Amino acid sequence: MQLNFNSPKPIYLQMVDEVKKALARGELLPGDKIPSLKERAQMSQVNPNTVQRAYQEMEREGLTETLRGQGTFIKKDPELLQRIRSEMAQAAVLQFIEEMQGLGIEPGETERLLHDHLFRGPKEG
Hints:
Order of helices and strands: HEHHEEHH
Strand order of the largest sheet: 1-3-2
Mean pLDDT: 91
Number of helices: 5
Radius of gyration: 18 Å
Number of strands: 3
Helix content: 55-70%
CATH superfamily of the largest domain: Winged helix-like DNA-binding domain superfamily/Winged helix DNA-binding domain
Shape: elongated
Low-confidence stretches: none
């Protein structure tokens, strides 16, 4: 897990994002057990309270469920993976659009650039 301690984004939200990315990449699957709070805190070198907050957020978002005496697991929800991928894709598109707007690129030019990069042949790449 790569945490950026210099990022303005809180560490606990970075931890949630890492779990989402692992799900989207297939590194974690519904039903998989995630490390205990203590294990995650040691692995990440963060305060256990930070990990607790991340785990609470993941449970609030419906990513995980805690089974008393067994641990915390990725929720067995058939729509979970699609929901996470869609959410992450929307965030990436929004970030891209904001970056292009920040550069002063007009919507038509943004669309052309995107189209060119998506549909050009492999030899042009």
